[in-house]
TrEMBL record:
<dbReference type="InterPro" id="IPR000212">
    <property type="entry name" value="DNA_helicase_UvrD/REP"/>
</dbReference>
<feature type="region of interest" description="Disordered">
    <location>
        <begin position="14"/>
        <end position="38"/>
    </location>
</feature>
<protein>
    <recommendedName>
        <fullName>DNA 3'-5' helicase</fullName>
        <ecNumber>5.6.2.4</ecNumber>
    </recommendedName>
</protein>
<dbReference type="InterPro" id="IPR013498">
    <property type="entry name" value="Topo_IA_Znf"/>
</dbReference>
<feature type="binding site">
    <location>
        <begin position="149"/>
        <end position="156"/>
    </location>
    <ligand>
        <name>ATP</name>
    </ligand>
</feature>
<dbReference type="Pfam" id="PF13361">
    <property type="entry name" value="UvrD_C"/>
</dbReference>
<dbReference type="Pfam" id="PF00580">
    <property type="entry name" value="UvrD-helicase"/>
</dbReference>
<keyword id="KW-0347">Helicase</keyword>
<dbReference type="GO" id="GO:0016887">
    <property type="term" value="F:ATP hydrolysis activity"/>
</dbReference>
<dbReference type="GO" id="GO:0003677">
    <property type="term" value="F:DNA binding"/>
</dbReference>
<dbReference type="Pfam" id="PF01396">
    <property type="entry name" value="Zn_ribbon_Top1"/>
</dbReference>
<feature type="domain" description="UvrD-like helicase ATP-binding">
    <location>
        <begin position="128"/>
        <end position="586"/>
    </location>
</feature>
<dbReference type="InterPro" id="IPR014016">
    <property type="entry name" value="UvrD-like_ATP-bd"/>
</dbReference>
<keyword id="KW-0547">Nucleotide-binding</keyword>
<feature type="compositionally biased region" description="Low complexity">
    <location>
        <begin position="14"/>
        <end position="33"/>
    </location>
</feature>
<dbReference type="GO" id="GO:0005694">
    <property type="term" value="C:chromosome"/>
</dbReference>
<dbReference type="GO" id="GO:0000725">
    <property type="term" value="P:recombinational repair"/>
</dbReference>
Length: 886
C-alpha cells in the first residue's frame, strides 16, 4: 500500500511538470520519465539484501515468536538507503505487520505439522489423549502464552504435556524448566505428575517445581551465596499478629506520641464507616455506641465515642427544651446536648458541597433550615458538624475547640468502659495491620505510594481514618523491618520481592521455559518476578501461564485479576489460547454457570463445551422454612443417596466410588452432624465439608451448597473487608459482588453430576434467584415453588397483607419497588371462587391460603386455569402466566 502511495506521488509530480512545460511560452522545459520496471527491480534487490541480513536469526523449523519480527524491524534498517525519516516512520509499522503476518502463517503450518507428527506423543503423555486446544497450547511457543482454562478443562495435564513437548522437541534442557504454583499442594501435585508422566525423558528430575515463595527463597540464596532464614515468628498468622501486638506495646511504652495516636485510633477510629452515598443495608444490625446508645448513623456513633472517651458528658436525642409539636413537625430532638455548657449539637449528612446523599427522601435541607431557625428564634446555642467534616483529617478539631472554649476540659481515656460494645482490641487491629503489611510488601509499595492512594475529594472515603492508619502503619512497619534486620532474617513477602530485585540487578536466571499455574491468583509481586525472569535471559526465555479469570477469588490475598484480562499490558508479545472443553460438568450445569459468571462483562468471554454426557437434573434448589429444616432436608437427601448406592441404582462417575462434597461460604456453615454423617455413610460414598475457597481445584459427583441465603454471613457475603486494605490491594472489579459471583461459579463447577442448593424461604440468595430467573432451575418448597421477582431478578415475591388488600412485593424492598396486586374478588363462574387478579406461574405457592400449590387444570370447554391444590378448602383461581403472555 505504501509503495503505491509513493508511486502515485511521483507520477503526480511528473504530471504537474509536464503540464507546466506545455503551458510555457518558451517551451524550453523537458519532462522526466519514471522507469517503473527499474524501480521494482531495485526494490526487490533491496528487499532481498535486507532479508539476507537477518534471515540467519530466524529458525523456520520451529515456532517463530512475535518478538523476532519486532527485533528485526528495530535492528535492521529498512531496505533502501535513501529513505527520509518521514517515509521510514510510515513504512516501519507496515513492514512489521507484514512480517508478523508472514510468521503467523508459518506458525499455523508448523502447528498443523507438529500435531500430525506427534499424535502418538499427545495421545499418551497424559492418561487421556489431549484435545485439539491442549495440543495448540503445547506447541505454541510465543514469547508469552496465556492459557485461559475453563473449570475442569485439564490445565494440569496441559502444563505437564507442554513441559514434555519442550523436552521431546529439544527446545530446552530439563534443568531449564521452571514450574511455579500458587500453593504447596499444587506444587507437589505438579512435580509428582511431571516425574510420573515424563519419566521417559532423561534428567526429568532436574525440572524445578516450586511455589513462588520457595523459589524466591532459593534464588536469593543463589544470587547472594547466603540463603536467608525466615524469622521465627513468620509462617503462623497467630505468631505474626502476636509480633505486631508486641511492637505496638513496646512503642506505646517508649513513645508518648505514638501511645496517644494509637489509643485515639483504637477507641474512636477503630471501626470503619459505611459509604456515605449508599443506603444502609437493612440486614445490618443496629448501631450502638460504646456508651450503649442506639444511634441512627455510623457517623453519630463516631462522634459519641469521641465524646465518651474524652470524658464529655452528653445526652443523645434529648427532647428540645421548647415544645415544637405542630401539624407538620413532631417534637424536635437534637442529636447531642451538652448540659454542662448548654450547647446543642446537630450532625448533618452533608458532603463538601453541602448536599445530602442521593438516597435521602424528603426535604432534608429544609429540615436543616427549620432547626437552625428554631435555635435562632429561641436563642439557644447550636453547633453543627457534617459528614464531610467528620470524614476529613482534623475531623474533631472544631468540636474540641468549641467545647474547650466554653470551659470544658477534655482528656482522652482509652480504658473507659461503657454499656455498649467495646472498641476493637489491640489484637484485632494488629490482625488488620498484618494483612495490610502483606499486601504492601507483596506489591512492593512505598509509604509515599500508599499515601498517594488515599482518596481526595471523595464523599465516601473516611480520609481521617485512612490517614491516621497509614501514620501508625509507617511506624509499626519500620520497627518490624528493624527487628528482621537485627536477626538477619526475612519474612514470606520478602522472598518474592527480593528475588525480583536480584534479577533486576543483573542476576541471570538459568530458566528458559517458565510455567506458572493459577495465574488469576497472581499478585503484582508475582508478575514482577515473572517479568524479571524473562528479562534476565534476554530473548531466550519463554513464559506460559495457565489460569481462569472466572475463578479469580483471591483478591483478599493480593491477587490482581487484571493480570488475566490485561495480560498483554504486562507481557507485550503474547498469545492467548483457550481451553474451553470441560471434562467435569454436565452440559446443563456448564451452561448455567457460564451464563451466570459472564453477567459481568469484564470476564473474558468463552463458550464452554463438555464431554460429560450426564443428562439428569444438574441444578436443584430447596427452600425450607428455617435453617434447621434445611439441615434436616440435607440429612434426608444424604440418607436417600446411601440407599440408592446400596441398591445398586447409583454409582460414582467412571466406575469410582461416589463422592459427595458439602460446601459453605464460611467455616461456620459446617453442619454440626457432618462427622456422624460421614461415619454412617462411609460404606456408600465419601463425604466431606469444605468452604468454597478450599474446594477450588477439587471435584465431586454431588455438591451440596448450604446456607445459600442473604445477610451478612450469607452467600453472597455482605461482610466486606476493612476499607484501609484497599489502599494496598489491587483495584476492585466495579461490577457488583463480582468476586462473590466468581466464588459462586467455583462452587457450581465442582460437580460432575449435580449441585443441590439449600436456602430458606425468607432469605433466599440473590444468586439463587438469578439462576431461577434465567430458567436454569426452580426453587422447591414444601408448598410449591418460590417465585423470582421479574423486575430485579435477584429477589423473590412475598405475600403482603396491605390496607387495601393482598399483594405481592419483592423481598428486596425498598431496593426493588416491584409490586403485584393479587387482591381477590368473587368469581363469576361459580359462587365462592377467589379469582386472583394477576396471572400466576404453575407450581407457585397459592397467595390466598398460603399453603397450597397452584396447579394447571382443564375446565372442559373453557380455557385452562390454575387452581389451588387445597381445593375445595381453598377455591383460588388464576390465569396461567404463559397464557397471559400470549
Amino acid at each position: 500500500m505504501i509503495e503505491w502511495l509513493v508511486l502515485g506521488a511521483l507520477a503526480l509530480a511528473g504530471g504537474a511538470s509536464s503540464s507546466g512545460s506545455r503551458s510555457s511560452s518558451s517551451g524550453s522545459r523537458s519532462t522526466t520519465s519514471f522507469d517503473t520496471g527499474e524501480y521494482r527491480r531495485k526494490k526487490a534487490a533491496d528487499e532481498a539484501a535486507w532479508r539476507a541480513g537477518w534471515e540467519h536469526e530466524v529458525d523456520r523449523t520451529r515456532w517463530i515468536p512475535q518478538s523476532v519480527a519486532h527485533r528485526i524491524i528495530e535492528t535492521y534498517p529498512l531496505p533502501g538507503a535513501d529513505r527520509t525519516y518521514f517515509m521510514t516512520s510510515i513504512e516501519k509499522p507496515a513492514k512489521l505487520k507484514e512480517l508478523l503476518a508472514e510468521f503467523a502463517a508459518h506458525n499455523l503450518q508448523h502447528l498443523a505439522e507438529r500435531k500430525a507428527a506427534l499424535k502418538p506423543f499427545f495421545d499418551s503423555v497424559e492418561k487421556n489423549p489431549l484435545t485439539d486446544e491442549q495440543m495448540d497450547a503445547c506447541i505454541c511457543f510465543d514469547d508469552a502464552v496465556q492459557i485461559v482454562a475453563a473449570a475442569g478443562s485439564g490445565k494440569t495435564s496441559t502444563m505437564v504435556a507442554k513441559a514434555g513437548y519442550a523436552l521431546h522437541e529439544g527446545l530446552v534442557a530439563p534443568e531449564q524448566i521452571l514450574v511455579l504454583a500458587f500453593n504447596r499442594d499444587a506444587a507437589k501435585e505438579l512435580d509428582a505428575r511431571i516425574q510420573t508422566r515424563l519419566a521417559q525423558f532423561e534428567g526429568v528430575d532436574r525440572i524445578t517445581a516450586r511455589t513462588f515463595s520457595a523459589f524466591g527463597l532459593s534464588l536469593i540464596g543463589e544470587a547472594t551465596g547466603r540463603r536467608p532464614s525466615l524469622a521465627p515468628w513468620v509462617g503462623s498468622q497467630t505468631d505474626e499478629v502476636a509480633k505486631i501486638v508486641e511492637i505496638v506495646e513496646d512503642l506505646r511504652r517508649s513513645d508518648p506520641t505514638f501511645r496517644e495516636d494509637w489509643d485515639v485510633f483504637r477507641t474512636v477510629y477503630g471501626r470503619d464507616l459505611d459509604r456515605w452515598s449508599a443506603p444502609r443495608d437493612s440486614a445490618n444490625p443496629s448501631i450502638v455506641t460504646t456508651n450503649g446508645e442506639r444511634v441512627k448513623s455510623d457517623e453519630e456513633r463516631i462522634i459519641a465515642n469521641w465524646l465518651f472517651h474524652h470524658g464529655v458528658s452528653y445526652e443523645y436525642e434529648r427532647p428540645y427544651e421548647y415544645d415544637t409539636v405542630t401539624s407538620r413537625y413532631g417534637q424536635y430532638k437534637p442529636d447531642f446536648y451538652y448540659s454542662d455548657v448548654r450547647l446543642y449539637h446537630e450532625h448533618f449528612a452533608l458532603n463538601r458541597k453541602g448536599m445530602p446523599p442521593p438516597h435521602f427522601e424528603g426535604d432534608y435541607l429544609g429540615e436543616r433550615r427549620w432547626k437552625q431557625g428554631l435555635h435562632e428564634e429561641r436563642g439557644t446555642d447550636l453547633f453543627e458538624t457534617t459528614s464531610h467534616e467528620i470524614r476529613s483529617p482534623g475531623s474533631f478539631d472544631r468540636l474540641r475547640h468549641e467545647l474547650e472554649s466554653r470551659g470544658l476540659s477534655l482528656h482522652h481515656d482509652p480504658d473507659r468502659t461503657g454499656k455498649g460494645p467495646p472498641p476493637p482490641t489491640i489484637s484485632q487491629l494488629a490482625s488488620t495491620l498484618r494483612t495490610f503489611q502483606q499486601h504492601v510488601k507483596g506489591s512492593g509499595l512505598t509509604i509515599a505510594q500508599i499515601r498517594a492512594a488515599i482518596p481526595v475529594g471523595s464523599d465516601d472515603a473516611y480520609t481521617a481514618r485512612l490517614t491516621r492508619f497509614v501514620d501508625l502503619y509507617e511506624r509499626i512497619s519500620a520497627e518490624w523491618e528493624e527487628r528482621l534486620r537485627a536477626i538477619e532474617c526475612i519474612d514470606f513477602d520478602d522472598m518474592i520481592v527480593a528475588a525480583a530485585e536480584h534479577l533486576e540487578a543483573g542476576y541471570e536466571s538459568p530458566y528458559t521455559l517458565i510455567l506458572a499455574d493459577e495465574f488469576q491468583d497472581s499478585s503484582r509481586g508475582r508478575v514482577r518476578l515473572l517479568k524479571a525472569l524473562l528479562k534476565s535471559r534476554g530473548h531466550d526465555a519463554r513464559l506460559c501461564v495457565v489460569g481462569d479469570d472466572w475463578q479469580g477469588i483471591n483478591r483478599f490475598a493480593g491477587a490482581d485479576l487484571s493480570v488475566m484480562s490485561h495480560f498483554k499490558a504486562s507481557f507485550e508479545h503474547s498469545t492467548r489460547v483457550m481451553l474451553s472443553t470441560t471434562f467435569r460438568c454436565p452440559a446443563a450445569l456448564s451452561e448455567a454457570a457460564s451464563a451466570f459468571v459472564q453477567a459481568n462483562p469484564r470476564q473474558i468471554s468463552k463458550t464452554v463445551v463438555t464431554t460429560n454426557e450426564y443428562d439428569g437434573p444438574a441444578l436443584v434448589a430447596y427452600a425450607s422454612e428455617t435453617s434447621e429444616a434445611s439441615t434436616s432436608l440435607l440429612r434426608d437427601h444424604l440418607d436417600a443417596l446411601r440407599k440408592q448406592v446400596a441398591s445398586g441404582a447409583l454409582h460414582g462417575s467412571n466406575g469410582h466410588r461416589p463422592r459427595v462434597m458439602v460446601l459453605g461460604r464460611y467455616n461456620r456453615d459446617r453442619p454440626a452432624d457432618i462427622g456422624r454423617w460421614q461415619r454412617s455413610h462411609a460404606s456408600a460414598f465419601d463425604l466431606e465439608f469444605r468452604t468454597v475457597h478450599a474446594s477450588k481445584g477439587l471435584e465431586a459427583d454431588y455438591v451440596m451448597l448450604v446456607n445459600l441465603t442473604e445477610g451478612l454471613m450469607g452467600f453472597p457475603a455482605k461482610q466486606t473487608d476493612d476499607s484501609v486494605l484497599d489502599l494496598a490491594m489491587p483495584e476492585p472489579d466495579p461490577f457488583p459482588m463480582s468476586e462473590e459471583r466468581r466464588l459462586f461459579y467455583v462452587a457450581l463447577t465442582r460437580a460432575k453430576r449435580q449441585v443441590r442448593m439449600y436456602t430458606t424461604i425468607g432469605e433466599p440468595s440473590r444468586f439463587l434467584m438469578e439462576l431461577a430467573n434465567g430458567g436454569h432451575l426452580r426453587i422447591r418448597t414444601t408448598g410449591g415453588l418460590l417465585e423470582p421477582c421479574p423486575s430485579c431478578r435477584s429477589g423473590h415475591l412475598k405475600l403482603i397483607e396491605g390496607r387495601n388488600g393482598t399483594f405481592q412485593a419483592c423481598s428486596r424492598s425498598p431496593s426493588c419497588r416491584f409490586k403485584r396486586n393479587v387482591a381477590v374478588r368473587s368469581g363469576s363462574r361459580s359462587a365462592g371462587n377467589d379469582r386472583i387478579e394477576a396471572p400466576m406461574e404453575a407450581g407457585c405457592r397459592c397467595p390466598i391460603c398460603g399453603t397450597g400449590t397452584l396447579i394447571l387444570r382443564d375446565s372442559g370447554p373453557y380455557d385452562p386455569f390454575l387452581g389451588c391444590s387445597e381445593y375445595p378448602r381453598c377455591r383460588a383461581r388464576a390465569r396461567p402466566l404463559e397464557a397471559a403472555r400470549v
